[in-house]
Design brief:
By secondary structure, this protein is an alpha+beta fold. The chain is built from 4 helices and 3 strands. The chain has a 3-stranded antiparallel beta sheet with strand order 1-2-3. The protein starts with 15 loop residues before the first helix and ends in a 17-residue tail after the last strand.
Length: 153
């Protein structure tokens, strides 16, 4: 049987020292360390903190723009009511804000002031960082108050 050895019989057996050396791994060159990850997270947090006020101001401006459109629609409804009934509508007779815009209804409430045949429509904010918007019977914006200093707009 000596001449017919198969290939597995000729392979030398590894020593314990060779096996332990082959198991030891070096750290991967493409991995990030904990310090590098913390630095990146800190940079993202700083950038986010800088961008948040601007983003909030843009959100508020979008709500104000939508509220101006709703105010114009309410003015049209008011004019239609005057043509039909010969007197201005009260706030209860006009469409509810949430029917026109849920976003505006979340930030404003409607006030209608009637003196004789004249009227004023006002959207009064329910949150302090929004301006009061108004429109008179001749289509001119009235008493639009800016938000307090230091607010998001």
């Amino acid at each position: 049987m000596g001449a017919q050895q198969n290939a597995t019989d000729c392979v030398p057996i590894a020593t314990q020292e060779q096996v332990s050396m082959s198991v030891t791994r070096l750290p991967a060159a493409g991995a990030f360390s904990l310090i590098e990850m913390l630095v990146v997270l800190a940079m993202v947090a700083v950038l986010g903190a800088m961008a948040l006020p601007s983003w909030r101001a843009q959100q508020n401006q979008a709500v104000v723009d939508e509220a101006k459109l709703v105010l114009k629609r309410l003015d049209l409804k008011q004019r239609e009511h005057i043509l039909r009934h010969a007197h201005p509508a009260t706030a209860a007779e006009l469409p509810a804000l949430d029917e026109l815009s849920e976003t505006v209804a979340a930030h404003y409430r409607l006030e209608v002031m009637i003196q004789g045949g004249a009227y004023q429509l006002r959207l009064v904010p329910t949150k302090p960082d929004m301006p009061t918007l108004g429109l008179s019977d001749n289509g001119v914006g009235v008493q639009a108050t800016p938000p307090e200093p230091g607010s998001a707009i």
